Amino acid sequence: MTTKVQELDWDHVRRIKWANVKPPSDWDQSLRTISLEGLSLLAMDPKGNLYWDGERLATTLKLSFLQKLGAVIVTLFAIAGGLGGAVQGWIALNDFGCKAGWHYVVCPKSGSQAP
Asked: For 93-113, what is each residue's pLDDT tens digit?
């Protein structure tokens, strides 16, 4: 089953791209809302880039110094937590291996007490 591709009168869409409404009072009053027909001018390419009427929209993200610092701190703590979990797992494996009689683990000499 094939779907029929609808043709649009792009000149008409460009003429009525703005909705005929006043923006909310808490918005910058120079902003205008887009009409339902005007949404046809919004497009996206396969890579996820956004376009308005064929022009690529600039989408950039800039983090402040404090945001970057926070990201570094969170990353360091995540690494420390991962390392702590790995060490705890190795200690548990070693303890279990000693009790199970595995030969590749380092066990305390018999007769010595662990603290």
From this structure: 888 888 888 876 678 776 555
**Which tokens hold the place of 20?**
């005929």
Query: What is the residue extent of each domain of the chain?
Result: 10-56, 61-105
Q: Are 2 and 41 in contact, with CB atoms under 8 Å apart?
A: no
Tell me the per-residue pLDDT of 10-27, one tens digit each, with 9 for 90 and over: 888 888 888 888 888 898
pTM above 0.85, yes or no: no
The CA distance from 57 to 6, in Å, is: 25
Give the strand order in the sheet containing 50-52: 42-44, 50-52, 55-56
